Amino acid sequence: MLWIPGPTEVRDEILAELQRPMIGHRSAEMKAVIERIDPGLRLAFGLGKDSTSMAGVGTHSATAMMEGSLTGVGPRVLCIVAGAFSKRWAEVARTLGKEVTVLEVPWGQAVDPDQLRDTLGNGAPFDAVTLVVNETSTGVLTPLGPVAEALKDSPRTLLLVDVVSAIAGSPIDFDEHRIDFALAGVNKALALPPGITVLCASERYLAAARGNERRTWYLDPVRTLEGHRDRKTPATPNVPLYFALARQLEDISAGRTLPEDERHKSGAAAWQARFEKHGRMRERTLSWAGDHGLAPYPEHRLSSPTVSCFRAGDLDVARLVEGLAQHGERIGTGYGDLKWETFRIGHMGDHTEEGLARLLTLADEVIADLR
Ligand SMILES: Cc1ncc(COP(=O)(O)O)c(C=O)c1O
What we know:
CATH class of the largest domain: Alpha Beta
Bound molecules: pyridoxal-5'-phosphate
Number of domains: 2
Shape: globular
CATH topology of the largest domain: Aspartate Aminotransferase, domain 2
Helix content: 25-40%
Distance between the termini: 24 Å
Strand content: 15-25%
């Protein structure tokens, strides 16, 4: 089984959706599929019934929408960099010719809201701030409340958030957290094969983007979101993944991905129960690691509910990963510079608590052999 921090295991029911007969992307059937996607997508971003924010789907990976999101904002961008993916967003911004200021955060930590407020208050207002809420490379989940609070005195600054490995594993509460733009691939906690990206934008973002000269066509979020509103796609989408997304969002919203005793839940309560399942999986994984004297890379209070990252200490990461792989279980090494210093377990998506217990018992045996 795939316990890497994405792509993660995909259920058979979802794989079956990919085998449906093809339909035309301008057909009434396709409109119906987009119609099915919409309510669950809005729940995934935590949008209330009266929210004026717009959600939608694009056919590309998440990085493409890091790029797309920036095409709608002005030149002054503050990038909070706390790991490999937030660093990537800063690189993307530079590539697009933005005036990038980087707010460096030590890896394994979350941005300090006071430092963020001070940086925002320094000099001319920033047009946008970029934040990766769940740094898959370090296993840190940045609390969004304090970030929103820090932005209170910066009404002109748009908050762009990568929720790639958070969505469907942790609440986003887009409007409540004053987010202006959010993007996520679907191959992490949404547990689909990779290839499409979901996005959401506030009225403020949309107004700013419509007013800017947008130098992209395919990656223009406004075009994608207006298309979704009209139940259309600007270009040929990955139709099988749309079938899969519709099914997955309906299943999550109907409680069908929950543990047996919680399957009566539906709507926002079912999403909340899914977040709580991931919270329990984080605690179980942290407690297992503690039994082996393995320290989490982030502080406990920042540990992600979807991906746990541990300092390997005296453990040989390559042998641990290989030992588990011999039993058919794949966990992740560290990411980038942390490759052999840390290892990561992705307890995201539709993985169950029973499955996690089996993985950790097997890991006990592998570690005992290694030591
Ligand atoms: C937090 C985060 N952002 C962005 C990405 C990039 O996603 P993609 O490879 O789908 O473009 C990843 C991939 O792992 C990620 O974990």
